Amino acid sequence: PVHPSATSWAANNLAPANRRAIGLAFCICMGNIGGIIGSFMYLDNEAPTYRTGFELSLAFGASGVVAAIVLELSYMWANKQKSKIPEEEVRAQYTQDELLRLGDKSLLFKYLL
């Protein structure tokens, strides 16, 4: 299953609502697929050490940590780029409805870290 903090991170950084719903469904789907894959990683002929299963678990865990770090760094970079443009300039260029439709692509949207 997907970790609750990953789900809340996705929910807070996806907008508008339809994109958030699809993103959360994708997170939950990937978590459930992980459970299916996990049941095939631990081979009966490797009992009791299950070397392949534990190595794959370590590899998936490490890749998850790397992905989270890369995502956080990309959010930090995006926030820095967005903060270079003054809010008044953005509001003069877009209407409130356009900004809402842009969701997290809006220059006023700040990613939560």
UniProtKB/TrEMBL annotation:
GO CC aspect terms: membrane
Keyword field contains Iron-sulfur: no
Location of this chain's protein in the cell: Membrane
Entry's transmembrane regions: 21-43, 58-78
Signal peptide, first to last residue: none
Superkingdom as given in the UniProt entry: Eukaryota
Keyword Endoplasmic reticulum belongs to the record: no
Keyword set, alphabetical order: Membrane, Transmembrane, Transmembrane helix, Transport
InterPro entries the UniProt entry points to: MFS_trans_sf (IPR036259)
Gene Ontology molecular function: any one: transmembrane transporter activity
Membrane disposition: Multi-pass membrane protein
PANTHER family attached to this UniProt entry: MAJOR FACILITATOR SUPERFAMILY (MFS) PROFILE DOMAIN-CONTAINING PROTEIN-RELATED, PERMEASE-RELATED
Entry protein name: Major facilitator superfamily (MFS) profile domain-containing protein
Species whose genome carries this gene: Trichoderma longibrachiatum ATCC 18648
